[in-house]
Structure formats: structure tokens, C-alpha cells
């Protein structure tokens, strides 16, 4: 068994739950030699992202909490299995701390750590915390909740320690911010000198955004702009065909997805996007103006609360997804026309986005974790 300290992160299921935690891992590795494990879900995205980062993936059997009561027994069975598995692992080798990074996979490791009096922490990049984070913050006696924005304080119970540290962003975004946009556009097969609109619905795409954009292709072309459109795998062929048949003269590139998102954002003059917390932290880090369509199907509307932070700061325009292409195009069209034609307004929005960024977020969080880790080491001597 290694004599180095063991740092445990827990969560997964989406890039938004993995990437902020992995950014903290990068900072921890620069500051101190240690072993790192990520207790995650069994979804392929977790294995792929963690494998690429060189972090051990510990797959759990826990399931997301089901809405249908007849599925609760299976959930409780898997929950208990995962908690017991974590208790065995942490008893055999005690972690210096456990960090819940979001998603249902963060629950069992955080609860197991609390039972063993191992320091626990939570990353909470959403403006309004979910029920699981609110519950764990109290029941798991967390040392600190790291929040992205100040507004989050009011949504946790009194007495929960909150530190507004920003949301850690992958180093690739910081590096891409210094690249020449013209060269990036050309590498995507676009005109290096024409303004570029980046359209993205996150990793799975967003059909309602896709359809609205297809309706507005002519208006974008008339403004002498071009589009890099990340459509999601299920819509890529249809979006490509629709643009091709539009006969608008629009310069465009359609991709199902890209692993070059830092470069895509760096090359963009304006971004249309969903409002996941991790995505918004990246937009802030890149200092880009945006039009945000929060995901409309979540009961708690957490993406809308995220988008409101940027909109109230003057960094974004918030539009509610009407779940209808015609209605979305009707509200998006005038906003696009105004922003594409007003470079000064885009620059003001870009500055407002940058003002929300915390460039050293990952280092701040890592330093706090190491402080607690070193205190624990002294007590054990």
C-alpha cells in the first residue's frame, strides 16, 4: 500500500460533474504528491474522461433516485451496497478527505466518510443547490461547500460553511484564451476573418435550439456572420442537411460534438448555449457574450437560476426555451440581430462575463483541502 496521502473525489455521470473536480485534482497534483481516486457511476463517459485524466475510476453500483415509488427498493439496495463498499475501502485505507463533486454517485462516499469522521467537502457550481447537496451539507457535516456564485449562500441551511470560490475550469480553457481566433476558425474549416457564432446544446445537443437556428440561418448569413454548430449526435445529419438546403449562402460547420471546446469558445464572437453551471464557468473564463436557453425540462429549473446570474450581471441574454422552434426563433431573432450588429454591446457583455470569473478557483480549493489534510496528518502523529 502506498504511503502517500489518498485524495478521494466522488460524483460523475456528466462532464459537468467531472471536469470541475478534475481541475482541482490538477492543482492538488502540482502542490503535493498523492494518490487520487474518483468514485463514479458506471456510465461510459466517466470511464473515458477519468481515463484520459489518468485518475483511478472506482465504479459504484448506486442508482439515481427514482421518481416512481415501486423502484425505491432497488435504489435503497444499491445505495446500501455502495455505502458499505465505501466504508470497507475507507477503513482499509483512510482518505485525507472526500470531495463530493456532484451527481448521485457523490452520495455514498460522502456519507461513508462522514460515518468515519473523515473530512468531507462539496463542490456546488449551480446557483441553487440540489436536494442532495442541501441534505449532505447538513447530514454529512461537511467542512465547506465551495460555491461558484455568492447567490448560493441563501439557498443552504443556516450554519453550513460556504466559500465562494468560483467554479474550477479546465486549464485548456485558460490556454485557449490566448490563441488567435483567426487560426482556430480556419482549422474548423471556416472563414478566418468573418465573425463566428458558436451554437451548442452541451454534449447531447439541444433540438429546440437546433431548430430555432435553422429558421434563422438566413438572418445570420445576411449579417455576414458564420456558424460553428455543435448539434449533438442525433441531430447532426439533419442540421447539416437543413443548412445545406437553405440556399442562404451561410458559411457554417456542423459537428455532432467536439473535444476542442476550449478552442471553439476562443474563436467565437457570440455563444448560444444551454446554462449548465460548468459551461457557464467556461464562458466566464473565456470572457464571451452569450445568449442562454436554460434546459426547460428540469423540475427545479436549476439552469434558469444559473443563467440569471450572468443575465443580471449584464454578461448574457436569458431566453426561456418555449419547446417550440417557431416561438424560440421569434424571440431569438431580434436578440441575434441586435448583438451581431453591435460590437460595443458584445464587448460590454464580454467584460461582464470576465468579471464573474475566478481564475485561481481550482488552486483556492486545492489549498483549502491541503490545509485540512495537513492538519489531519499532524493529529495522527
Describe the model:
The protein is an alpha/beta fold. It folds into two domains: 6-169 and 359-380, Glycogen Phosphorylase B (Rossmann fold, 3-Layer(aba) Sandwich); 172-355, Rossmann fold (3-Layer(aba) Sandwich), CATH 3.40.50. The protein is 48% helix and 15% strand. The chain has 16 helices and 13 strands. The chain has helices at 15-31, 44-53, 72-92, 107-115, 131-139, 171-176, 181-187, 207-215, 217-222, 236-245, 261-267, 277-286, 302-312, 325-340, 343-355, 361-380, and strands spanning 6-11, 35-40, 56-59, 97-102, 120-124, 144-147, 162-164, 196-200, 226-230, 251-255, 270-273, 290-292, 316-318. The strands form two sheets. A seven-stranded parallel sheet has the order 3-2-1-4-5-6-7, with helices on both faces. A six-stranded parallel sheet has the order 10-9-8-11-12-13, with helices on both faces. α10 (236-245) links the parallel β9 and β10 (251-255). The longest helix has 21 residues, at 72-92. The protein is elongated and about 65 Å long. The two termini are 19 Å apart. The mean pLDDT is 93.
List the helices and strands and how they pair.
Layout: E1 6-11, H1 15-31, E2 35-40, H2 44-53, E3 56-59, H3 72-92, E4 97-102, H4 107-115, E5 120-124, H5 131-139, E6 144-147, E7 162-164, H6 171-176, H7 181-187, E8 196-200, H8 207-215, H9 217-222, E9 226-230, H10 236-245, E10 251-255, H11 261-267, E11 270-273, H12 277-286, E12 290-292, H13 302-312, E13 316-318, H14 325-340, H15 343-355, H16 361-380
Parallel strand pairs: 1-2, 1-4, 2-3, 4-5, 5-6, 6-7, 8-9, 8-11, 9-10, 11-12, 12-13
Helix pairs in contact: 1-2, 1-16, 3-4, 7-11, 8-14, 12-15
